[in-house]
Design a protein that fits this description.
Helix content of chain B: 25-40%
Radius of gyration of chain A: 29 Å
Number of helices of chain B: 30
Oligomer: heterodimer
Number of domains of chain B: 3
Distance between the termini of chain A: 77 Å
Largest interface: A-B, 59 and 88 residues
Shape of chain B: globular
Strand content of chain B: 15-25%
Radius of gyration of chain B: 29 Å
CATH class of the largest domain in chain B: Alpha Beta
Order of helices and strands of chain A: HHHHH
Strand order of the largest sheet of chain B: 5-4-19-18-17-6-7
CATH topology of the largest domain in chain B: Dimethylsulfoxide Reductase, domain 2
Strand content of chain A: under 5%
Distance between the termini of chain B: 96 Å
CATH architecture of the largest domain in chain B: 3-Layer(aba) Sandwich
Number of strands of chain B: 33
Helix content of chain A: 25-40%
Structural class of chain B: alpha/beta
């Protein structure tokens, strides 16, 4: 009887292990990460519902050892070694200035044709 | 030894020896499984020889330009998936992309250059070698150039992507022709013109839907056919379900599309009256003081009445809107109840950031008031301070590429460039960037000069605007027509020479990453060797440039298009570019009003208007170009479409208004030849390999029509046949025919052998095409039609 029990136990254990090994890779998008960081799954993952490939913030957060807060996008890009060609300060205002409005005026007749002026359009 | 009474080991009486036995079994089992996993499955001789790889490239089946992963086995492309590393589609691949291989391997592709031997349209083709074909065309071009007639060559084009736009531009300019004429005037031209006249930016608006709280589409089909459809689908899903605060999507259209069905609210509207609705909403927002007063005061121009430099008084946007677009009047025009307009306006202004989305699809604004309608819609964005704001309208940025080499024009090129354009842009239509639909009429009139050579690149004018045979008549007057078509489309069938283009899966190229806002580039590269004896039109233009020589050869010095792409993209890390299929900055910084960057989002590309960082409600650009006679011409306003003011007799004869709305299964690129797309063309109505006409329930009852009945849809221009689909989601006297059908195809998959070669009906055949006098934008609807049983 004891032998049967041992054999049965061994078989069940093997079956469980086989089942576990044969299962697909477990998903790593865990709701507790969202709870931990206070941000939605989409902050890290490309899919809004979480799981699957990570975006830059998710990659940087994992690379940093999953700290309490997710680095913001600029910091993430910096951590990932992405060099931005733009300077964030260029987009911000330190001393707000209201531009002076200029009244409209009729253009001189020799003005170039619009399709020439706007021909340097880069869009697809 | 103390034991744990709850231990299973103790309970089963498992001894140390038994435990070791069990452990050994487990380890053996695990090792066996690992071994099984590590050893490849037995391979057949074929599989052993298979060479498999994934090639990253960029789709070209719609303007989005998604990243694709194409699986290639032994040199054959076998599967298309989305590239997860691409910022636009993030691994998603729409059904068009999935079917790209059916286009690549389609038996309907033109396989060699062809020369028309008989009468045009006779189908009497002779296949000729590329060298002979290019020699023929370059001789013609050289001869005309030498005779001082370079300007008599015109190139009509559709979608040009990445570097191709400037390549074509350099080709035409250095050759000496001003006639590079875009199909934009049928569609996105209105949005681009509105952005330039009000915001001073030469580009198409991009919408930060991810961060918006309220998105309202005026026409178009945001989630099926917009320029960044996959990106906007994801962004809309995120806006509504992926973040704590759910945003609202409102779709305004005479027809309930997939966008309308997925939206939080669909607002049916009388066809052609979007501009009136936008101005009515502006009236409510201004009247109730809900607009962003700080932004309007500090960063806009022409909101209030003002005096110009000479002391003349002018009307501003506020007084025009308050005087002329009262709720009652707008309700009468649009057919939308006053309380709904007021509610929409209130929601829009109080749920910021809010976005009013401009359509870019062909025909959506073509009611004779496209320019001012687009200006009226975009003015709503300024009223609520959504200009380059988080969750607002942002400006597409572009990467810095290596400069194009300089070249100088010779006398022939300078003379040609100074000539009047064949489409009337710049003269007949002073504001026009192009007036594609006007080319046939000008060719027929012979003014300003007869056209000698017509090149068709991604353009099919015979399909786009048949105009009751006038376009065909015009083509017969052009002595030499060359088409770059991949399949024998309607216009290619009437060409003299076909230089068949390779599909996007066989060529080098690139796309700018439009739709995200941030700078980026997406690489297109050959996935497989050309299946047939076809070439990249870019390669063809470079070859022609070398054959014609002179400034052309200097403007385009590269031996082939791959070399051109390598040159322009040489600033990039190609290892990363090839590994990811794209490069992008991945971040968009919104320009704070008044920041240094503000000038890049407001006023950057103005020609005559001041670059003072102010959004123009009153367009100073229009004022500069038109003079001071009419304030109304410089302000967003609404002009009632001619078809809505027709006589009673006309309305009785043709009681229905034909509306268009592109659908996701449609693409100008596949010309009806892809079986899978034909199988699901009418996705929601189960219509395959055919067209259908959607008609409202009451109208169907009055005409005693039921689903599936065959009917004629007839206008003054012609008639087409389709099956009825009765729908509740339709403006009462509007009907809808899907665009994109009505092409010839000889593909038999999924069809009966005796089916007609033309699949479905071309709705363009019902409309007359004319042109807005100022902007050169197309006027083609809403067309009056009637319906009768077959």
């Amino acid at each position: 009887m004891k032998k049967y029990l041992i054999l049965l136990g061994a078989l069940m254990l093997c079956a469980s292990i086989l089942l576990l090994l044969a299962m697909p890779e477990p998903a790593h998008a865990l709701p507790e990460y969202a709870a931990q960081t206070g941000e939605p799954c989409s902050s890290c993952h490309i899919s809004p519902s979480g799981g699957g490939p990570r975006g830059p913030r998710g990659q940087a957060w994992v690379a940093a050892g999953k700290p309490g807060a997710i680095p913001d996008l600029t910091e993430s890009l910096s951590l990932l070694g992405v060099e931005l060609s733009v300077d964030e300060a260029y987009f911000t205002v330190t001393a707000p200035e209201v531009p002076e409005a200029e009244a409209p005026a009729v253009a001189p007749a020799q003005s170039q044709k619009l399709f020439h002026w706007l021909s340097q359009y880069d869009g697809n | 030894m103390a034991t744990n009474p709850k231990s299973s080991t103790t309970n089963t009486g498992l001894s140390r020896r038994d435990f070791l036995k069990l452990g050994a079994v487990t380890v053996a089992a695990g090792a066996g499984l690992t071994a099984l996993k590590s050893v490849d499955a037995p391979q057949s001789p074929q599989a052993a020889a298979a060479e498999e790889r994934i090639v990253k490239t960029t789709c070209a089946l719609c303007p989005s330009g998604c990243g694709l992963d194409v699986r290639v086995v032994n040199g054959k492309a076998v599967k298309v998936e989305g590239n997860p590393l691409h910022p636009l589609n993030q691994g998603v691949c729409c059904l068009k992309g999935q079917t790209a291989l059916e286009m690549l391997y389609s038996p309907e592709r033109i396989q060699h250059p062809r020369l028309q031997m008989g009468e045009r349209g006779s189908g009497d083709w002779k296949e000729i070698p590329w060298d002979e074909a290019l020699g023929l065309l370059s001789d013609k071009l050289t001869e005309l150039r030498k005779a001082g007639k370079a300007h008599t060559v015109a190139l009509l084009h559709g979608e040009l992507r990445g570097q191709m736009r400037q390549t074509v531009q350099r080709f035409m300019r250095a050759y000496g022709s001003p006639n590079m004429i875009s199909r934009d005037s049928l569609g996105e031209g209105a949005a681009r013109m509105a952005l330039w006249l009000s915001q001073g930016i030469n580009g198409l608006p991009v919408y930060d839907i991810n961060n918006a709280n309220y998105v309202m589409t005026f026409g178009g089909n945001l989630l099926e056919s917009s320029r960044n459809v996959i990106g906007y689908l994801g962004a809309t899903a995120f806006m509504r379900r992926g973040r704590p605060q759910r945003g609202k999507l409102v779709a305004v259209h005479p027809r309930l599309s997939a966008t309308g069905a997925k939206a939080d609210e669909w607002i049916p509207i009388r066809p052609g009256t979007y501009g009136a609705l936008a101005l009515g909403m502006a009236n409510v927002i201004i009247n109730s003081g809900l607009y962003d007063a700080d932004f309007v005061r500090d960063f806009t121009f022409g909101f209030d009445d003002f005096e110009d430099a000479d002391g003349n008084k002018h009307q501003g946007f506020q007084s025009l809107v308050l005087e002329s677009y009262t709720l009652e009047r707008v309700s009468n025009i649009t057919g939308i109840a006053t309380e709904i307009i007021a509610r929409l306006a209130g929601e829009f202004a109080t749920n910021r950031p809010a976005i009013a989305v401009l359509p870019t699809e062909a025909g959506e604004l073509s009611s004779g008031n496209a320019l001012y309608t687009a200006l009226a819609i975009h003015a709503l964005n300024a009223l609520v301070g959504s200009i380059d704001a988080l969750g607002g309208v942002i400006v597409q940025r572009f990467p810095e590429l290596k400069d194009w080499p300089t070249y100088s024009l010779d006398a022939a090129a300078r003379t040609g460039e100074s000539k009047e354009r064949i489409d009337g842009a710049g003269m007949q239509f002073p504001l026009a960037l192009s007036a594609y639909q006007n080319v046939p009429e000008r060719v027929l009139s012979g003014k300003p000069y007869p056209l000698e050579v017509l090149l068709l690149l991604n353009a099919n004018p015979l399909y786009d605007m048949p105009n009751d045979g006038r376009t065909l008549e015009a083509l017969t007057k052009v002595p030499f027509i060359v088409s770059f078509a991949s399949t024998l489309d309607e216009s290619a069938a009437h060409a003299d020479l076909i230089l068949p283009a390779s599909t996007f899966l066989e060529i080098w190229g690139d796309d700018y990453l439009e739709g995200t806002g941030y700078a980026g580039i997406s690489l297109r590269r050959p996935v497989v060797e050309p299946v047939h004896d076809t070439r990249n039109p870019g390669d063809v233009l470079l070859d022609l440039a070398h054959r014609v020589g002179g400034p052309l050869a200097k403007a385009l010095p590269w031996k082939d298009y791959q070399e051109l792409i390598n040159y322009r993209l040489s600033n990039f890390d190609w290892e990363k570019l090839e590994a990811n299929g794209n490069w992008s900055e991945m971040i968009y910084f919104n320009a704070a009003p008044g920041s240094q960057a503000w000038k890049d989002v407001l006023g950057r590309d103005r020609l005559n208007a001041p670059q003072d960082g102010r959004f123009d409600f009153f367009s100073r650009e229009l004022f500069a170009l038109l003079g001071s006679d009419s304030d109304l011409a410089c302000l967003p306003h609404f002009e009632v479409p001619a078809t809505l003011t027709d006589s009673t007799a006309e309305a009785l004869d043709y009681p229905f208004l034909l509306v268009t709305q592109p659908i996701i299964t449609q693409s100008a690129q596949w010309q009806g030849i892809i079986p899978t797309l034909q199988e699901c063309y009418g996705l929601q109505g189960y219509v395959k390999w055919d067209s259908w006409v959607e008609i409202g329930q009451k109208a169907a009852e009055a005409l005693e029509l039921h689903n599936g009945d065959r009917v004629w849809i007839e206008s003054k221009m012609g008639r087409v046949q389709a099956a009825v689909r009765v729908r509740a989601g339709m403006w009462p006297n509007a009907i809808f025919l899907p665009p994109g059908q009505g092409h010839h195809t000889f593909v038999r998959w999924g069809r009966h052998a005796d089916d007609a070669s033309v699949v479905g009906a071309n709705p363009n055949a019902l409309s007359g095409f004319s042109t807005e006098p100022l902007s050169g934008l197309a006027v083609c609807g809403p067309t009056r039609v009637r319906i009768s049983r077959v």
